Amino acid sequence: MGVDIEVVVRGDLGGTLPSVRETFYQTIIDWDYYEFFVTYMSTGVVFAVVAFTVSAVSAPMIFDRAADTSSAIQTSIKAVCVNPWAMLVWAALIAGLTAIGFVTLLFGLVIVLPVLGHATWHAYRDLIR
Question: What span, in angstroms and rounded, lies between the C-alpha atoms of 81 and 84?
Answer without folding.
Answer: 5
